[in-house]
Specification:
5-stranded mixed sheet, 7 helices, 7-stranded mixed sheet
Length: 224
């Protein structure tokens, strides 16, 4: 692991090992570039509070550990009256891990505000589908009339669900998926949902920002 930028403490990852910078080696949100999507490298990244976000034009993976981390405690999910009515009356059918690859592909196809393109390219789809086959990545799917209309996916690491992305083709479908994620988390001793970075949608559901140091403390405590 080579230090590329002394001011910002950004590292170039080796291909022959799966090491990542530790907390005391981090400065900015971007902490490393390079490496590959080997399953063990991905697992090591999440165990060290790091996740890949995009691949640049030079085919370098960019690895992030935000200084402000968006998280949600499952018991703090905000179930509004309108969302409760949607859950009870709209006819959604919720499933888990029945069509993971379709979920991640749907997430990659959704146009998002302030984004010209998605970071979920074929490399991400293959990598996370492989993690799903290993039982590490999971999806929640929302169906209506037997059609997939919403869902989300992420990884379970150290009793933390590390959320990656969600999509919705019907109003509130992604919120319904998130609601069921929180329910499953409480039933399966998942202590925290990592939402990575702030957005208004997640904040409306009860997520909040904590410091990177605090997140690392939570990550360590859930592994004890």
């Amino acid at each position: 692991m080579e230090l590329l930028d002394k001011e910002h403490l950004i590292y170039l990852l080796d291909f022959d090992n799966f090491d990542f910078p530790s907390l005391d080696m981090m400065n900015d949100d971007l902490v490393a570039v390079g490496g590959d999507f080997h399953p063990q490298r991905l697992i090591n990244a999440y165990e060290n509070g790091i996740f890949p976000w995009f691949i640049d034009e030079y085919n370098h993976i960019h690895w992030f550990s935000p200084q402000k981390r968006m998280v949600l405690y499952p018991e703090e999910f905000k179930l509004t009256k309108s969302l409760k009515r949607t859950i009870n009356n709209k006819g959604f059918v919720i499933k888990s891990n029945t069509c993971f690859e379709e979920v991640i592909k749907s997430c990659s196809n959704i146009k998002r505000k302030h984004e010209d393109d998605t970071w979920i390219d074929k490399n991400f789809i293959i990598a996370y589908t492989n993690l799903h086959k290993l039982g590490i990545a999971h999806s929640i799917e929302v169906f209506m009339d037997e059609k997939l209309v919403g869902g989300l996916y992420g990884l379970v690491i150290n009793n933390i669900f590390c959320g990656e992305s969600m999509f919705s083709l019907e109003r509130d479908a992604s919120k319904v998926a998130f609601y069921y994620l929180c329910n499953q988390a409480k039933q399966n001793n998942i202590k925290l949902i990592d939402c990575q970075v702030y957005n208004d949608h997640l904040a409306s559901l009860g997520a909040k920002e904590i410091t990177r140091k605090h997140y690392f403390e939570l990550l360590k405590s859930t592994n004890s």
